[in-house]
Amino acid sequence: MARDSRYDVLFEPVRIGPVTAPNRFYQVPHASGMTNALPRVRAAFRETKAEGGWGVVCTGACSIDESSDDAPLPFATLWDRNDIHAHALTTEAAHRHGALAGVELWHGGASVMNRSSRLPPLSPSGIPWMATHVGFMGNLRPRTMDRADIREVLRWQAEGARKARTAGFDIVYVYAGMGYLGYEFLLPEYNHRTDEYGGPIENRVRFVREMLDVTRDAVGKDCGVALRVSLEELRGRPGRHHPSEAHELVAQLSDHADLFDVKMDSSPTDCSPSRFSGEGSHEPVIDFVKTLTDKPVVGVGRFTSPDMMVSQIRRGVLDFIGGARPSIADPFLPNKIREGRIEEIRECIGCNICISSWHDGVPVRCTQNPTAGEEWRRGWHPERVAPATRPGKVLVVGGGPAGLECALTSARQGHEVTIVDAGTSWGGRLTFEKTLPGLAAWNRVADYRLGRLNDMPNVSLYLDSRLGVDDIIEFAPDHLVLATGARWTRSLYSSMEIPVGKLEHENVFTPDDIAAGRLPEGPTLVFDFDNYYYGGVLTEHLASRGIEVAYVTPAGQASAWTIMTNELPLVHRALARRNVPVTTLHRLKDFDGDTATLAHLFTGEETKVACRAVLIVGLRAPRTELEEAIAARRGEIDAAGIRSLVTIGDALAPGAIAHAVHSGHLAARELGRSGSRAHYLRDTPITDREPAFDRAEAAE
Ligand code: ADP
Ligand code: SF4
């Protein structure tokens, strides 16, 4: 199908200093969890985006010195020749598809804890970042940089830039965002200096300007010099010559950078979850940048709609459509727009599971794109799948995320696929969850897959069909896939931090009751030891229905795991806005219809709370009835010619939607495979040079 000419503007080339991007699709630097220990995994991950049409493909944060060490969070390095060789795999991969390769050179300043290098962190004035969440806390406070330290950092940046050029990068970054060193110089809260680097904004930008200048001196003839800067705080501070200090900064640095990559200041606002903000949420902060510079500007906003992208360009907000999450969810987004296949875009749902991967210290995972991070180690491609060697009849029972993904991927392999669901609409758990506050975009998981399945001649879809063993035997597929999901239990929680027992009372509810439309009456206590989004969002849901709700969890925070997805501060804000009292470090012991008995997790001290109902959001258990019935009639199943039987998704092991989608994809790729499951390849660091050589040598 031809592309709509409205979108032509997105495919114009744009100059960035001495280099030219082939189009306006710019994969901004983003964490991938792929350190230099996984160079092939990383190169293939980035290459897939270049292949999918992104005109610029960047690395994540890439440390310029041992004093910028974020361990155990995964970060890349550009310290020595082995690093150069490792990164060269990525630049070569990007160049194979005509994309430019960018590197986000990075010094973490006071926000890294140097747990591995054990060096005191550097900072403008010794002000530490004192995070409240265990995973980010550290005990080592930074030291104040003197002028010699500043000169050292400038030297590392220049050396890093030269190493980057040797590795083949076309765009080299100076990073002044998200609490890292350059940003710390910009903000008076971090920068208390009384020398020429502190005080008025002209002085506070000096360090960043010098970083840009040394980068330009080092590689400016060959590479574009990009400034990545957070503008949220500065935009709120009045300037002297311009409306804000953010304006002052752009005006003062315009001649020093070839590109402005502008963003917000903290992960929850920069990579905000769709639950709490929509597409294009950065615009009010960054909309002025192009009025003060003629250099190209890139920004993000979870852009997946080509009309929104065109509007950003036409209205003079951005020159490049920046994408991190949209490029993970669909590496082929640009090509799909180019080829007029907009309805095939696998839109990011804004769940931030990808970000949780970085917090977990592992390669990126994506809810929408199960192939993300699997390009090299499993050989998975987001758009292509090898034809089945022996196409057959596949029956998928259950049309939730796991079943839909398995049906789609097996249909793409050329199997004759039938998918059935007992419900009256597709999406499994999503049919209800999409109606909860802020979760509408999550249904893109079902929408994308259904859209594709409906277009395929080798697929039959049946709703309102609860299948039993007799139906399956009569249908006699070659391959049977059970994707029947899980159910919530009334399990309580023990001080050993495991589920225990079962709370029996007619006014004890589970999320399945709420999904079925059975709402509690009167004051309700939500007891959440699932710890992800569901307890928090159901609390919001009940409160929005006018039910008086109290939230209790044995964890230290409400929806504690959502710290991993940038949602936690916003969950607390949402509960506070609905006047929900939050009690942490308590477990529910009992409920008699009028009173819930809580116990402190560590002291055991009991508290009574008056309430008429309890909603337990705790343990899920697989729905195994069908699997068990099949096992009981195994002989008849074999006689019907059913060659393979596999259980996937929540029916196998209850998890997040990302787990279900990955499970469905894996099952389809391995359909009919005999023997044990296929192993993935293990990547190894590049060590083709002696580790003992002089690091400075690499910078020449
Ligand atoms: P997952 O996240 O693993 O995809 P879900 O709970 O979202 O799991 O979806 C499971 C789906 O399976 C539900 O829509 C449910 O209606 C359907 N289902 C469960 N048992 C049967 C059955 N025997 N026949 C048809 N559909 C079923
Ligand atoms: Fe988008 Fe979620 Fe995938 Fe991240 S994990 S790219 S937020 S769909």
Automatic annotation (TrEMBL):
Which intervals hold domain FAD/NAD(P)-binding? 393-637
Cofactor(s), by name: [4Fe-4S] cluster; FMN
Keywords, alphabetical: Flavoprotein, FMN, Iron, Iron-sulfur, Metal-binding, Oxidoreductase
Query: One Pfam family from the UniProt entry?
Result: Pyr_redox_2
What is the top EC class of this enzyme, as a single word? oxidoreductase
* Keyword Oxidoreductase annotated: yes
Give the signal peptide as a residue range, or say none if absent.
none
Give the family this protein belongs to, as stated in its UniProt record: In the N-terminal section; belongs to the NADH:flavin oxidoreductase/NADH oxidase family.
Q: What is this protein called?
A: Dimethylamine/trimethylamine dehydrogenase
